[in-house]
Design brief:
heterotrimer; A alpha+beta (159); B alpha+beta (787); C alpha+beta (147); A: 159 residues; alpha+beta; Ubiquitin-like (UB roll); DNA polymerase, domain 1; 2 domains; five-stranded mixed β-sheet; 35% helix; B: 787 residues; Aldehyde Oxidoreductase, domain 4; Aldehyde Oxidoreductase, domain 3
Chain lengths: 159, 787, 147
């Protein structure tokens, strides 16, 4: 067993977990934050993307113990407050960028990270770039058309 | 009128919980005293189970029980059934092999479960499952129909000699043979429809709870049709009688057919919950999903189409061999028969069509309905044939189709279906204009200057949805009726709950169904709640598949709304002292036409429940139900045009333009319908260019993860140009046809027709991977060099 | 999948022949071998730990020597169960030829896997198996030449 301590969505959390506990299992099972999903077991689908110290990470590829002391943000904590929505969340709704909703949290976490990275690097996030950046996130419902639109719209909303 | 009625692009009510991570999927549910199931699965495609040693597993920490198939059958749990009986040409019934939820003496595919471990934690269950030692006697295996058909092939089920499940036919054989014999030109092709893995993003999951004090079971499960699940679990698998079993399908993360069926795991979780007196949870890993979720397609066909001297189709003859896997899944038999061959007349006026279908067992996971289910196979066959015939005849492929279109409705095809409406030429014209087909040759030349091969392909698909009059499907072998139910509850404060037997797993029913009510009673959709997916709340329903929830599910709601509307008008007429005929419902009020007499909508609700002043003899309350049984199938149709560019150096193909013109009848929410089309097209492009479920000759699944099974990613697909050219469906009160599957049905032939056009070689099968396209290009170069 | 290779071993043919049947030497030569015990003249039981692609598994299995034509040729067959990881089966036809004081060993091997290893590692099996076979014979040579 290992004691892990981290800040999740702004709150200090700690628990004793088996050494091999994945971050995603810690988030889902221990913290009961079930917005972070598990869609595969080979780190391809991106349904489990969260932010660790401000960077998008597939929570299925990281041990909870590796996030010791980290700042973790999940879909439940992405908005400024309980009553607000993050502009990217709004953009997904307004552009019908989701259907079954299962890949959506991972998509939104990837999208906000993508927008921040491009902004920091002073690069343009055009449609082509969005599509390439989504390589690690699989959606089976939308055909990506409206996800790409939503991310472009979310990016302008975040500006 | 409200701006949230029929035809409005209303944003989805359900989105808020999904974008905030508050969706409630089955794996999110935790029950008190919950244990976890892990299945021991066969690594062999075909083997006798000689013994199972569970002693080491049972001794492990946290293990509650290790259970096997003999215990399961010993407790009277019934075999898994196929719900659609097919009769062979010779009048014999299909050969359904026994399928126990846990294999007893024999395993028949890699992933077949032989035992289950129930333990305190997921990790303990998995560790103990590894410690279960199964002694297998390995048998030779087959993984495709051609191998299963062979003389001396391994016998998979004793009651299916030669592995043949049934040999079925439809259409007029002698007339078709005669027509083809006298044809001026015939086109013959061998066409394979590649096997696919459905891959909804949410893996299957089940949480079963047995309540000993009430002798009652509750099952949370990832189902497209919880009521059908309860019926089958009760009537055939003997888990519990229906009134002692509640099935809840909460938020479900995509289905695409794969979540219609009742799988071994749900049955075992329920049974294990009773055995251990604990809640039992199982969630599939993606690896297990590849092994155990029913696959789709997997047809091998030979087809001949005949034309007269004026290029009119005179006959179409098809032989299809379909792989149904190791066992017959719930609707597997209907897919390569009534959902497939009945659409083989396509959009065309063909006097003579004949198809015979042989289905076989193989040592692979069962094959059943996957988005489109039979209709993509039919559309691919016909539309590849039409494009090929046009090339052979030297005529424009769009015009060859136009010339042969069905133009008058109703139109009776030789293969059961009676098309009720459509404007196929209208869809073709709209798609051609949107795709700028006139400008194609200039684009082709421009691409050639960049060293790219540009090609264009059509697909004019038709499908059948809203399946169908219950008596009709019953006569064809279906074990269930395919109607739908609805209940409209107007609460005393005027808010409305709609209970529906349809199930939403991404389709947005909470929004579109509310729009239907909004349209009728001019109320905001916020005042309307859609209730679905719980057998304790909704009495019965048939669930969602086959693009049926609009045409059938909403028609049922519409019928129930008729009854509510009539009662509302009666109450208002009584209170307002007017004639029922003069009562109108608008702007949140129930009014007397042409006067200022009105009562609020909520006041009508309150009146109904206080019952202080109701018409003589009227029962209190405001709640009405309806069952709707469709009078015919519905026939969505359309024209898809795909344009590709191929890099001749690498075979890499890019879809540069994809244009759709669909006829879905009445559209409730264009935003949602477009989304359905986008997703369907992406799945079709996946089938055409990327996806292939591959077993090796020994029955080992080689495409068992996202590393090897190529799901479409965002950079594999284009933006889609989607439009509608609709004719009203005369068969249901709303005029709807259905839109859920069209994209997946119509797109594969358009893609392959475009690629084969670009490379000048028709010999190309799906998935058209770069290596296959490159190889096809080399054939062209070799042929040119030889000349 | 089929693999083959050739080794020149600086030891007399009889030494090589004996070595192939010596559990001590085999234990050192079989990649990942943790235990190997002789159960009869031609049969051994073994525990081998292997990693193929993303799947790491411990196989429990049997090694059988067949078609023995001393000191010229034999067939080595192995079959292992890796629990939830699946199974692996393989065999090698081995020929020994005398070349002065040295021996030329040639082999043709084949391998078959199933279950999770096939599902997740199918792309890697060919190269992994070829590498393992090669490593086995290289180890055998090294053990003989070092001793």
């Amino acid at each position: 067993m290992t004691k892990v301590t981290m800040t999740v969505n702004g709150k200090a959390r700690s628990a004793e977990v088996p050494d091999n506990t994945l971050l995603v299992d810690y988030i889902r099972e221990n913290l009961r934050l079930t917005g972070t999903h598990v869609g595969c077991d080979t780190s391809q689908c991106g349904a489990c993307v969260v932010h660790v110290n401000g960077q998008a990470v597939k929570a299925c590829t990281m041990l909870a113990a590796s996030a010791e002391g980290a700042e973790v943000t999940t879909i439940e904590g992405v908005a400024a407050s309980k009553d607000d929505l993050h502009p990217m969340q709004v953009a997904f709704k307004e552009n019908h960028g989701l259907q079954c909703g299962f890949c959506t949290p991972g998509m939104i976490m990837t999208a906000t990270d993508m927008v921040s990275r491009y902004k920091e690097a002073g690069k343009t996030l055009d449609e082509h770039a969005i599509r390439e950046e989504l390589e690690g996130n699989i959606c089976r419902c939308t055909g990506y058309h409206n996800i790409v639109k939503a991310i472009a719209d979310g990016a302008s909303k975040m500006a | 009128m409200t701006d949230q009625g029929i035809g409005a692009r209303v944003l989805r009510k359900e989105d808020k919980r999904f974008i905030t991570g508050k969706g409630k999927y089955t794996d999110d549910i935790v029950q008190p005293n919950q244990a976890y199931a892990a299945f021991v699965r066969s690594p062999h495609a075909h083997a006798n189970v000689k013994s199972i040693d569970t002693s080491a597993a049972e001794a492990m920490d946290g293990v509650e029980a290790v259970l096997n198939g003999h215990q399961l059958t010993g407790d009277g749990i019934g075999n898994i059934i196929c719900g659609w009986g097919i009769t062979s040409k010779d009048g014999s019934p299909m050969n359904m092999g026994a399928w126990s939820a846990l294999a007893t003496d024999k395993v028949r595919y890699v992933g077949d479960a032989v035992a289950v471990v129930i333990a305190d934690s997921k990790a303990q269950a998995q560790a103990a499952a590894e410690a279960v030692m199964v002694d297998y006697e390995i048998l030779p295996a087959t993984s495709n129909v051609l191998a299963s058909m062979k003389e001396g092939a391994p016998q998979i089920h004793e009651n299916a000699p030669g592995n043949l499940i049934f040999d079925w036919e439809i259409g007029n054989k002698d007339e078709t043979d005669a027509a083809l014999a006298s044809a001026h030109h015939t086109t013959t092709m061998e066409i394979t429809n590649n096997r696919l893995s459905p891959n909804p993003m949410e893996p299957r999951s089940a949480v079963a709870t047995f309540d000993e004090s009430e002798d009652h079971y509750t099952l949370y499960t990832t189902s497209q049709n919880p009521h059908v699940a309860r019926l089958v679990l009760s009537a055939f698998y003997n888990v519990a009688p229906e009134h002692k079993l509640r099935v809840i399908a909460p938020d479900v993360g995509g289905g695409f057919g794969a979540k219609i069926y009742i799988y071994p795991e749900e049955i075992v979780c329920l049974w294990a919950s009773m055995k251990t007196n604990r809640s039992v949870k199982w969630t599939s890993t993606r690896s297990e999903a590849f092994l155990t979720d029913a696959h789709g397609r997997d047809h091998v066909s030979t087809a001949t189409m005949g034309f007269d001297a004026d290029n009119n189709i005179v006959g179409f003859k098809i032989n299809t061999k379909a792989n149904l896997g190791a066992y017959m899944s719930l609707f597997s038999s209907s897919v390569p028969t009534y959902l497939y061959a009945t659409l083989l007349s396509g959009q065309y006026n063909i006097a003579n069509v004949y198809c015979d279908v042989q289905t076989y067992y193989t040592n692979t996971v069962p094959v059943d309905a996957y988005r489109g289910a039979g209709r993509p196979e039919a559309a691919y066959l016909i539309e590849r044939m039409m494009e090929t015939a046009a090339r052979e005849l030297g005529v424009d492929p769009g015009e060859l189709r136009r010339q042969n279109f069905v133009r008058e409705f109703p139109h009776q095809t030789p293969v059961i279906m009676a098309y009720d409406s459509g404007d196929f030429a209208g869809n073709l014209d709209q798609a051609k204009a949107a795709a700028d087909v006139a400008g194609f040759s200039a684009r082709k030349e421009e691409a050639a200057r960049r060293g790219k091969l540009r090609g264009l392909g059509y697909s004019n698909y038709i499908e059948a949805c809203g399946i169908a009059p219950s008596a009709a499907v019953g006569s064809l072998g279906a074990g269930v009726g395919l109607w739908e139910s609805a209940e409209v509850r107007v609460n005393p404060v005027g808010t409305i709950e709609i209970l529906t037997g349809s199930h939403s797993h991404g389709q947005g029913h909470e929004t579109t169904f509310a729009q239907l009510v909004s349209e009728r009673f001019d109320l905001p959709t916020d005042n309307i709640q859609i209730v679905h997916g719980d057998t304790d709340k909704v009495q019965f329903g048939m669930g969602t598949y086959g693009s049926r929830s609009g045409a059938v599910g909403m028609s049922a709601i519409s019928k129930a709304l008729d009854k509510v509307e009539a009662k509302v008008k009666k109450i208002a007429a009584h209170v307002l002292e007017a004639s029922e005929d003069d009562i109108v419902i608008e702007g949140g009020e129930v009014k007397v036409k042409g006067t200022d007499k009105a009562m609020g909508w909520h006041e009508v609700g309150l009146s109904a429940y206080t019952a202080h002043n109701l018409p003589e003899g009227m029962e209190p309350g405001l709640k009405e139900g309806a069952f709707y049984d469709p009078t015919n199938f519905t026939f969505p149709a359309g024209c898809y045009i795909c344009e590709v560019e191929v890099d001749p150096q690498t075979g890499v193909t890019e879809i540069v333009q994809f244009t759709a013109s669909d006829d879905f009848g009445t559209i409730i929410n264009p935003m949602i319908v477009e989304g359905q089309v986008h997703g369907g097209i992406a799945q079709g492009i996946g089938q055409a260019m990327l996806e292939h479920a591959v077993y090796d000759d020994d029955g080992q699944l080689l495409s068992g993860s996202y590393m090897d099974y190529c799901m479409p990613r965002a950079d594999d697909v284009p933006n889609y140009t989607v439009s509608h050219h609709s004719t009203t469906c005369p068969g249901n009160p709303l005029g709807m046809k259905g839109c859920g599957e069209a994209g997946a049905i119509g797109s594969p032939p358009a893609v392959i027709n475009a690629i084969t056009d670009a490379i000048g070689n028709n010999n190309l099968s799906m998935p058209a991977t770069p290596s296959r396209v490159w190889a096809a290009l080399q054939q062209v170069s070799a042929a040119q060099a030889a000349e | 999948m089929d693999m083959s290779g050739e080794y020149r071993i600086a030891a007399p043919i009889q030494t090589v022949w004996d070595a192939i049947q010596d559990p001590e030497i085999l234990r050192g030569a079989i990649p990942g071998c943790e235990e190997l015990e002789k159960t009869s003249d031609t049969e051994m039981s073994a525990k081998v730990s292997l990693k193929i692609g993303p799947v790491k598994a411990k196989f429990a299995g049997e090694v059988t020597l067949k078609d023995m034509d001393a000191p010229n040729s034999l067939k080595i067959e192995g079959e292992g169960k890796g629990g939830i990881a699946g199974f692996a089966k393989g065999g090698a036809d081995v020929q020994l030829a005398e070349d002065g004081n040295e021996t030329i060993l040639t082999y043709q091997a084949e391998a078959q896997v199933g279950g999770k290893i096939a599902q997740l590692g199918s792309r890697l099996i060919q190269s992994t198996a070829a590498k393992l076979a090669d490593k086995f014979f290289a180890n055998l040579r090294d053990e003989l030449e070092d001793s």
